[in-house]
Amino acid sequence: MSDRREFRDLATPDAAREAIDSLDLAPEPETVPLTDARGRVLAERIDAAIDVPGFDRASMDGYAVRARDTFGADEVDPAELDLVGAVHAGSTPDVTVEPGTCAEISTGAVMPDGADAVVMVERTDEMRSGDSNEAGGGDGDRPDRIAVRTAVAPGDHVMSAGADIAAGARALGPGTRLTPREIGLLSALGIDEVPVEGKPRVGIVSTGDELVRPGDDLDPSRGEIYDVNSTTIAAGVEEAGGEPIFYPHAGDDYDEMERLLRRAADECDLVLSSGSTSASAVDVIYRVIEARGDLLLHGVAVKPGKPMLIGRLDRSESDADDGGSDDESRSGESAYVGLPGYPVSALTIFRTFVAPAIREAARQPEPATATIEGRMGVAERYGEGRLRLMPVGLLDLNPDSGSPPLVYPVDKGSGATTSLVEADGVVTVAPDTEVLDAGETVSVQLFSPDVRPPSLLGVGEDDPALNRLLDRLDAPRYLPIGSREGLRRLRDGVPDVAVVAGTTDREVDSVELGGWSREWGIVVPEGNPADVDGLASLVDCDLRFVNRSTDSGLRRSLDDALDDLATRRSVSRSELTDRIDGYAHTVRAFESPVRRVIAGDADAGLGLRETAERLGCAFVALGDQPVTIHAAPDRTDRDAVRALASVLENFGADGSGEDDPIDTLAGYSRNDETGS
Amino acid sequence: MSDRREFRDLATPDAAREAIDSLDLAPEPETVPLTDARGRVLAERIDAAIDVPGFDRASMDGYAVRARDTFGADEVDPAELDLVGAVHAGSTPDVTVEPGTCAEISTGAVMPDGADAVVMVERTDEMRSGDSNEAGGGDGDRPDRIAVRTAVAPGDHVMSAGADIAAGARALGPGTRLTPREIGLLSALGIDEVPVEGKPRVGIVSTGDELVRPGDDLDPSRGEIYDVNSTTIAAGVEEAGGEPIFYPHAGDDYDEMERLLRRAADECDLVLSSGSTSASAVDVIYRVIEARGDLLLHGVAVKPGKPMLIGRLDRSESDADDGGSDDESRSGESAYVGLPGYPVSALTIFRTFVAPAIREAARQPEPATATIEGRMGVAERYGEGRLRLMPVGLLDLNPDSGSPPLVYPVDKGSGATTSLVEADGVVTVAPDTEVLDAGETVSVQLFSPDVRPPSLLGVGEDDPALNRLLDRLDAPRYLPIGSREGLRRLRDGVPDVAVVAGTTDREVDSVELGGWSREWGIVVPEGNPADVDGLASLVDCDLRFVNRSTDSGLRRSLDDALDDLATRRSVSRSELTDRIDGYAHTVRAFESPVRRVIAGDADAGLGLRETAERLGCAFVALGDQPVTIHAAPDRTDRDAVRALASVLENFGADGSGEDDPIDTLAGYSRNDETGS
């Protein structure tokens, strides 16, 4: 521990921004095919090199005429012109319109020589030889004269060459972001590749011996975890307009880290290291940057994110000589930022400090929807005297009203990856703010421009039927915090609904929307080797048990059953629980005890018949417990709550077989069928 | 013209929406690597298959202890524990923490057997043998005892296995759009590929013999134009979440069109035809759909877009048998929509009717920014009794105030591709609306969610120095409509500035921001073969001339010079102009007359010295004319107008050589140097 680096003299967030601004991470412009150019930014002005259209063009179907020949013509006294030919789009006119003549012409065709206007076909009649007054008949002969029933002026229904855009005119300016519309104009100019600002190449180096790439095998007994930051930050880099490049994991070895960082520096405009929570890995990086680059800043006074590094990394000098670099204008340094190790911290620091720099280097504008106003749903105290980037969740109570969404803090500890999806953005809390009041308006920086607040916020018990019910709703968010904590939060006014299993002491004003019943009991290995036959076996046999926490409705039902047993035996409940090995060993979710049993870490676990049967265990039933959905009284009129009630009404009620969630889950029944 | 198909019995827009809703264009779900999953939509619920973390994990650097051993410890009376080993992140613990002992532990490491809590390193001191009271010194020996200066409870600074997310818990629901945050959670679960909704495959068939693909050679004499719709619509398809597939151009031949449409139907979920303005090409498509599919609707009562087709196309029956299809669940039909030929019409109809269907098939949500409120800058009359999708431009007068942008109609005729970039979106005007008043609030559907209104709207003369000046501004829009029309629009209150060349009769209240001077005259072929030596040559020699329109400041200066010449000769101006062959032949932009001269279509043209010299022509000077930028008096305080004034102040004033736009353009000078 003697190498531990202390973060004294933390830099201010403004100093961190300045340090990042001082880095050069702008790539060279590049040329891309027009079909790949959507969302890119023009690197230079595009002037039209051709006239569009490139010729005087008929803009109506009709007849090309000399306008002077039609002067004075009207419905009563049409002008009669000899029809001398036809011009179609995509062909060269082979006629000349002399005085007194006309030529049939299609929209988009080249105006023939001599003609200076088009008469719409609707204002003409076809005539045949010897037929001076009547529309053409059906004998199949081509008409040879045309009666024009209107006068036209020169230029009528003709788009002259260059009238849309003329050669030499400024078509699009530098810095223009290319949407389908600009791509359309470039197509009209015949341009099939365009000079655009380059995408900054961002190398992502994840550090820490404990990290395993998603998809590879994980050995939890060695403390391995999947690498979250690399893919998360890579997606953030893409979103900001950069091109992420993954590098292999680096361990804590100095030489390996140096080799890796220099390779990344050679190939990238910016190198991000991220992933390790290990002080020794951070320390190795620190030493490499100091030796092989320039450390501008170490540690920022912001929560989360203190352990942030900003600097530059030297590129290999030999690289330009041996032709290994494909970009000779590259400077001798790459920008470097070290992100915190915890995923929510890393993403927060990335989007606050790094994404703006990537966008600026790519010349991409700040997304329009990146910041929204919201209203605090609960009060939040804070008093650390350090700028805080507080992760928050959103709930859009009135999606169509334009009123601000409800904002609530999400604080599960920054090590939790689930905070990533339970938070929608960040509220910046100034160092001198001690409390944010409920109802106060706050500005939320969304994690991504495409974040959409959930339609419904539910909290409470975890349950497999509930999981299926949620699938039928549009964009719900559900926090499985247990029945007891769920009711507490419902009372505090943030969620729409709480899901409660079994009985509860808590009195919370709510509206019951409905529910179902589930069979609970003791899960034991296949074949029930210890011959468990009820609650008494847990107390009286030497079994390793796995319990659920007191927030869970399952635990409450177990404790109620233990109370009954204690009463029957005339002892206190704690006398019984003291004899259950593992009564205090609690795990988090409805499947967790079963998995401990399967893994051989326990002989029995608290669980559901559904889970036991699905995972191939034996099950000793102890009872049925109701699962009930409670809505906050002031939320029952919300569309999302009505939608939930409507799904609930039909849920498990059709008995129609394989799609029916109640009928297909072992031990489940509709509420009205249950005992208790 | 006898095959012309009339659009009688136009369907209502609602009927068109219903017809499109009745089409099935949803693709099969697919599995993609997590690194490519950003922006995709989950096709099914993802439950956690593992506990995260997968082990009881230290969440601080410090010492793993049995909590009971620390009970009662404080700063005054620390608990002393034997140090029995160390556990680092990424390795399997090789120690057991027995009562009275502890093990050094790093953040993220596996809790060793026996330990149930972690003491932060900050609350401990290292001790060495025989040293019962003092922090460890520098002799390099490992400490063998640790003094713990605080009591901890079981579970303190430990994240238990599954505490973040437990195996079996619902991680993400179907329909979830994957942003960096969801990608982070999926990474934590070790998932490296995900089931997502497919992208609808959208075949794009462009029709019309006159269309040439951008990048290929164009023959304007044959009436060829570049194909705008294919790339524009393809970009729109991508933006809506579909995958565009280009097919070769089809001409007007029935068999070729049938072959092409059936191939596209076999390979795609939706076929869009687009591109032709030719009635005969539309007619061929109509016949193919009727013969080889099902035409649901032909013609919609909407402006633009009457000639819209909606239907289905049969797939080849043999395809599934010969193994040519890689998707056996494909139904026997593909959806089909025929778009109008003009680019703005095609894009408008696409985004109004087709993009929502593609988004729904891809399960992509409607973009949050796709519709904004604006305020009409001018009144607009309309009275055709047909739903109108009116293309409009936007100007964000107060970008940071949140007040609605100014909205103005863009109506250059739907054949103009420049409308694509001059319009930002569409206002839907109900059939019974006769007038939209200035100041009225309207809802603008943006062409793309990433449309951003320009910061500055300028109108007026076209000028090469102005083009360079605009490059120095952030997101300006400039409409080169000529000096005269520019002043008229400035008076009407929409643009910020008008650029005026030469003198003008129009009295418009404005603030002059500055400008420059440019030399104008007669452009003739290299070497001046006709020995043009002034204005008199145009009148007295037999030269084919090319003029600019009366809106142009260049034309105004020419006419003033002709007036002078007429006065000197004691004739009227029209007596002179009647003798100039081509005086009435006007072209659009400052380069256009010069290009006619170069092409041999004219012997002399009205133009600038700058253009003549740059394009290698000879030049006969007739004078200098000022180019002045006029700001609307109520806009001079806008940031964008100030930025323009500031750029203008330094423009051409530094005389610093190659980057200086005034010094490098032939015939240009700063205003204070010019004569006239």
UniProtKB/TrEMBL annotation, chains A, B:
Keyword Metal-binding: no
A Pfam family annotated for this UniProt entry: MoeA_N
MoaB/Mog domain segment(s): 203-360
Pathway: Cofactor biosynthesis; molybdopterin biosynthesis
Residue ranges of the region described as Disordered: 125-144, 311-336, 651-676
CDD domains per record: MoeA
Protein name: Molybdopterin biosynthesis protein
Biological source species: Halorubrum laminariae
Database matches in PROSITE patterns: MOCF_BIOSYNTHESIS_2
Keywords: Molybdenum cofactor biosynthesis
Tree of life domain: Archaea
GO terms of biological process kind: Mo-molybdopterin cofactor biosynthetic process
Cross-referenced InterPro entries: MoaB/Mog-like_dom_sf, MoaB/Mog_dom, MoCF_biosynth_CS, MoeA-like, MoeA_C_domain_IV, MoeA_C_domain_IV_sf, MoeA_linker/N, MoeA_linker/N_sf
